[in-house]
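Backbone-to-sequence.
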C-alpha cells in the first residue's frame, strides 16, 4: 500500500515520493504482524485491554499535536505565544483550503473518536447521556492540555478550535458506541421471536 501511495504521488503536483515512507510503513506492518498478536494474547493484555488502549490513544494524540517538539528557549516568549492563541472557533479554517480543512477534521475525528468509544464502553452502568457527557469532557480535557502545551512550541499555534473538535470527536465516538451496542443487542432488547411467530400464525389462520 505504501509503495502504491508513493508511486501515485508522481501524478500530483507538489508531491514527491519518499522511500523512507515505504520503509517505515513496511517496518510498522511487520511489527503489527509479528509482535502485536503475541502481546495481545498475554493474560495482562486480555485483562486490561481497554485501559491499555485508553493510555495509548492519548499518547498517540500527544505525539501528533506536540511534534516536532521544538520548545521555546526562554520563558520570556510565553506572553508572545499566549497572544497568538486563536480564540475565535474555526478562524484558521476560513482561509484554509477545503481539502486541508477536511483532512484536519478527519484526522481529529479518527484520533479522538476511539477514545470516546472506549470511555463510553468502560461506563456501562450509567445512562447514555452521562456516557456521552463523560466522553465529551475527556476529549475537551485532552484538547485543553495539549493546546496549553503548544504554547511552549515554536511551530504550533494553540487554538480553541482544536479543543472543541477534540470534545466533539470524543462525543461522536460515544454516540457510535451507543449505536453499536443497540445493534449488538446491548442497548435495545432483542425482539421476542415467539410472539412474532404467533402473530404470523394468527394472520395465516384469518386469511
Amino acid at each position: 500500500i505504501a509503495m502504491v501511495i508513493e508511486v501515485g504521488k508522481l501524478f500530483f503536483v507538489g508531491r514527491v515520493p519518499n522511500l523512507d515512507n515505504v520503509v517505515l510503513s513496511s517496518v510498522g506492518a511487520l511489527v503489527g504482524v509479528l509482535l502485536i498478536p503475541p502481546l495481545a494474547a498475554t493474560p495482562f493484555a486480555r485483562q486490561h485491554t481497554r485501559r491499555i488502549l485508553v493510555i495509548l490513544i492519548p499518547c498517540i494524540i500527544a505525539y501528533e499535536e506536540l511534534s516536532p517538539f521544538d520548545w521555546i528557549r526562554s520563558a520570556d516568549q510565553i506572553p508572545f505565544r499566549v497572544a497568538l492563541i486563536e480564540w475565535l472557533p474555526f478562524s484558521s479554517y476560513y482561509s484554509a483550503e477545503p481539502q486541508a480543512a477536511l483532512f484536519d477534521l478527519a484526522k481529529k475525528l479518527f484520533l479522538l473518536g476511539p477514545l470516546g468509544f472506549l470511555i463510553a464502553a468502560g461506563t456501562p452502568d450509567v445512562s447514555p447521556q452521562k456516557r456521552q457527557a463523560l466522553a465529551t469532557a475527556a476529549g475537551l480535557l485532552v484538547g485543553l492540555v495539549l493546546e496549553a502545551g503548544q504554547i511552549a512550541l515554536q511551530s504550533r499555534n494553540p487554538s480553541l478550535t482544536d479543543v472543541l473538535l477534540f470534545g466533539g470527536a470524543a462525543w461522536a465516538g460515544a454516540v457510535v458506541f451507543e449505536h453499536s451496542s443497540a445493534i449488538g443487542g446491548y442497548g435495545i432488547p432483542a425482539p421476542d421471536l415467539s410472539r412474532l411467530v404467533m402473530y404470523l400464525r394468527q394472520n395465516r389462520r384469518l386469511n
